[in-house]
Amino acid sequence: MNKKLLACILFCPIILLAIWVNYISIQSKNGIDIKVSVTGYDPRDILSGHYISYQIDWDKTDCSQFPDKECHKEKFCHGNRWGISACRFYIPEESSEQLDKLFRSRNNDTLKFEVIYSYNPSRKAIAKQLLINSKDWKDVLKETK
Amino acid sequence: MSLSKKLASWVDAKLITPEQSTQISLYEAQHHSGLFWKTALFIAGQLIGLGIIMIIASNWENIPDNLKLTINFIIFSAFAGGAYFAITKNRPHLRELFLILCFLMVAATIGLTAQIYNLDGGWETFALSWALLGLPFILLSRMTFFNICWFILLLSAKDFFSDLMDWLGKDLYRFMFFSIITTAIGYGAQKAHDYLKNKTQSVILKAFACFCIIFAYCITFGFAFQFGFDDYSKDSTVLTRFQTHAFVFLFLCMHMIIGLKTQNAKKFQYNAAFTEIYIFFLFCHHVNQLWTEGLSFIISGILILVLLYVLKKTCRSINQMEIFK
Fold it and tell me: What is the ipTM of this complex?
């Protein structure tokens, strides 16, 4: 086999993945920050790590954040697949247990969970930050330790 | 019988000279050996690749996301470089090791990106992306098992297995139809691979053939348990059970005949072993009256003996086969 062709075949997936990662990175940085209210629970995913699986609570979300003051739900994660929400926020393994306990105690009215999304009308919104009572989740875990 | 024993017996029978025996051994060592190394390297590659995926999955906080991605792509490029070296320097075992690692790194990269940017999407999207981006490494690999894994991954991405089970339902004839079709496609793919063997070194067609045939066995035995045995099929009628067992025996018999025609002794032996195990299983899970069952067993055995006798006396091609001597 031609060496150049072989190199192309071997490195083509790497290049495509690099382009894809860069595209998502740029999309994440370019967009309006929208804060949505969420509810959820935490399963484990072997391939992608621990994550919070949540549903967006549109009733408690302020739609005036959007440019046209309307909540564009179709641009956000949605739908239930076999009872599991498609929305995810990934968290490190060492913090997952503590955060899981916090999430499961969500009936406690003092805790308010929100996710900041990077929103752009031309593509799907990308989750950027998880907030608990308007603070970053990492800061909240440090305080509760 | 191992090659060395066969060669020794051929030398004893003066079919080949000792020098020819040595030449054959050397040739086989160069071209067809290394099962141990191939398997060991595959397992090592699997462990390393899955270990990398697990470390990524732990989502360690100690280093920034951009650095994680950079390290990931450096490792991926290193593995791809290793594969390039192994292929250009004709090192088949190293080739397989690096190709497996590259394939697993595709999954690791997708998983890491999903983790950093909190991308949603289920197994289907992930598996389809992994299968498509990993395809170049599969096409360069010569390991059939690796290619079969790729087919399973691709089909799981399209929800193939659950859709198939829904379609098959509790319809015995659909099971039979699907088993026959899958077997036919498998043997067709095998023929295509044999035809194209000189033009391409890819084993993807052979892997597809193996996958189809193994799948046909799974479907056949799956419906045999579902419809054929009392413990699993309370609602099946006697006719349904009879049809099920008859189909299973015909299925196994067909594979034995194909083994005979292609002079593949292993295929014949495996299917013969399956038949023996199935008969014993039938005996252990007898359905109706023992007297009727016993009589049908004896009649079946006698019929087989009669058939063999007739074949031996009438069919010249079978008599010429080594397996019948």
Answer: 0.84
The residue type of B106 is: V
Average pLDDT value for residue range B108-125: 86
For residues B167-179, give the mean pLDDT: 84
CA B244 to chain centre: 24
- A-interface mutation test, from B85, B91, B112, B115, most A Cβ less than 10 A away: B115
Rounded Cα distance between B142 and B83, Å, is 13
Mutate to test the interface with B, among A10, A87, A93 (most CBs of B within 10 A): A10
Burial class for A45, CB neighbours closer than 10 Å (0-12, 13-18, 19+): middle
> What are the structure tokens assigned to A46, written together?
């072997």
Q: Rounded mean pLDDT of A19-34?
A: 90
Q: Residue B31: which pLDDT band, with cuts at 50, 70 and 90? A: low
C-alpha closest to that of B107 among B81, B72, B59: B72
Instruction: Report, as an integer, the average pLDDT of B32-45.
Output: 74
Distances (CA, A) of B200 to A69, B178, B205: 59, 30, 10
What residue has token string 């067909």? B254
Using CA of residue B303, residue B304, residue B307, residue B309, what is the dihedral sign?
A: negative
In whole angstroms, what separates CA B24 from the centre of its chain?
Answer: 29
The partner residue sitting opposite B60, judged by closest CB among A17, A25, A92, is A92
Cβ B118 vs Cβ A88: under 8 Å: yes
B227 CB-near residues (< 8 Å, 6+ apart): B172, B175, B233, B236, B240, B241, B243, B244
- pLDDT tens for B199-229 read 777 788 889 999 999 999 998 988 888 787 7
Listed as own residue / partner, the contacts of A119-125 with beta carbons closer than 8 Å and 24 or more positions apart are A119/A31, A119/A32, A119/A33, A119/A34, A119/A66, A119/A72, A119/A75, A120/A27, A120/A30, A120/A31, A120/A32, A121/A67, A121/A72, A121/A75, A123/A27, A123/A75, A124/A75, A124/A76, A124/A77, A125/A31, A125/A34, A125/A75, A125/A76, A125/A77
pLDDT digits (tens, 9 = 90+) for A37-62: 887 655 555 445 677 778 888 888 88
Mean pLDDT, residues A69-80: 78
What DSSP character marks residue B32? T
Sequence-separated (6 or more) residues with CB below 8 Å from residue B141? B95, B96, B99, B100, B147, B203
The residue type found at B32 is H
B122 CB neighbours in chain A (<8 A) are 81, 86
Rg of chain A taking only CA atoms, in angstroms: 18
